[in-house]
Write a structure and sequence with these properties.
single chain, Helicase, Ruva Protein, domain 3, 354 residues, Rossmann fold
């Protein structure tokens, strides 16, 4: 199973130019830092509130926050019982958002997700009945159990942020976050997501089992008489939307931009960074959507760290989750039991860090 923990940087981070001598197009770093530090205070309160119900899994919580702040979606892979449903439900309660859960099954229809037209015999008119996709936080449980046309309906809504029912277009609520889950153990009777569709997820997060101490805390919390505490609202939806705008304003130096592009190009032409032996293990490299996702996710990670600028550490912290589902492996790689995470780890170790 792929590791969730990000690769620790081994080189010094890039500190942006001082406000007195900024790079071309650079904002006042000190002013931006102060603004981000002030506006990102809710992150700590949100983490603390979610930790009341979610024991451990801090990386998963941070990835959910990155997806929310970067206006992306998250594909979560892990065995059942690892608090995936509880995590997104708790997140929705901390921002007072509407939560819906869709259990994907082989007999599910697109109308069961996006909605349909219902005929009223009294008025002899059709009315729109909106589906569960019309919520702020949508859990698509076991997304690979539904046929392709249902998956496409969901992914189209994710991309366009709107749904067309009976010729009428309806905008989805904001903020809007889809957490789709996959069970990596049981593949019988499933419909794997096509590469072109899985590319629409900003992050693919692989989570593992908790530690012994964490599991004891989980058992204790679930067996207490009062049950698990209910998360309280600590931030408003308008604060989240404002934070999204601030995330995009975080400064990214040209050196960081080049580093992101170098990482993505290394997945397409590994021989350019001295890793020609990986050429036969990669069937296709990451798309330009990976470059965009890396930039947005790195900015969101900097926001979580209360910083107004992006460092190589931010890029490396999210690179695995942004790119693990965006490169394909060949039969040779599968025969040697080499996965995308191992390939990405080797590439990240060889691409020069600014």
């Amino acid at each position: 199973m792929d590791s969730l923990n990000p690769i620790e940087p081994t080189t010094p981070v890039v500190v942006p130019s001082s406000p007195s001598a900024p790079s071309q197009g650079a904002p006042d770093i000190q002013e931006l830092n102060a603004r981000i530090a002030e506006k990102s205070q809710f992150v700590d309160a949100l983490r603390a509130e979610m930790s009341r119900t979610i024991v451990g899994q801090s990386d998963m919580v941070d990835r959910l926050l990155i997806g929310l702040l970067a206006n992306g979606h998250v594909l979560l892979e892990g065995v059942p019982g690892l608090a995936k449903t509880l995590a997104i439900r708790s997140l929705s309660e901390t921002v007072a958002g509407e939560f819906s859960r869709i259990q994907f099954t082989p007999d599910l229809l697109p109308a069961d997700v996006v909605g349909t037209l219902v005929y009223n015999p009294q008025s002899q008119e059709f009315s729109v009945k909106k589906g569960p996709i019309f919520a702020n936080f949508v859990l698509a449980d076991e997304i690979n159990r539904a046929p392709a046309k249902v998956q496409s309906a969901l992914l189209e809504a994710m991309q366009e942020r709107q749904v067309t029912i009976g010729g009428e277009t309806h905008a989805l609520p904001q903020p809007f976050l889809v957490l789709a889950t996959q069970n990596p153990v049981e593949q019988e009777g499933t419909y794997p997501l096509p590469e072109a569709q899985v590319d629409r997820f900003l992050l693919k997060v692989v989570i593992g089992y908790p530690t012994k101490d964490e599991e004891r805390a989980i058992v204790r919390a679930n067996l207490q008489q009062a049950g698990l505490p209910k998360p309280q609202q600590v931030v408003s939806q308008s604060d989240i939307l404002e934070a999204r705008e601030l995330v995009r304003s975080i400064y990214m130096d040209e050196k960081i931009e080049r580093y992101i592009v170098d990482l993505v190009f290394a997945t397409r032409n590994p021989e350019d960074c001295g890793l020609g032996h990986l050429k036969d293990l990669i069937s296709f490299g990451a798309s330009p959507r990976a470059s965009i996702g890396l930039g947005l996710a790195a900015k969101a990670h900097a926001f979580l760290k209360h910083r107004g600028f992006v460092t190589p550490e931010d890029v490396r912290a999210v690179a695995m989750d942004v790119m693990r589902h965006r490169i394909g492996t060949t039969f040779e790689a599968e025969a040697e039991n080499i996965g995308s995470a191992q390939i990405l780890t080797e590439l990240m170790d060889h691409v020069e860090v600014p």
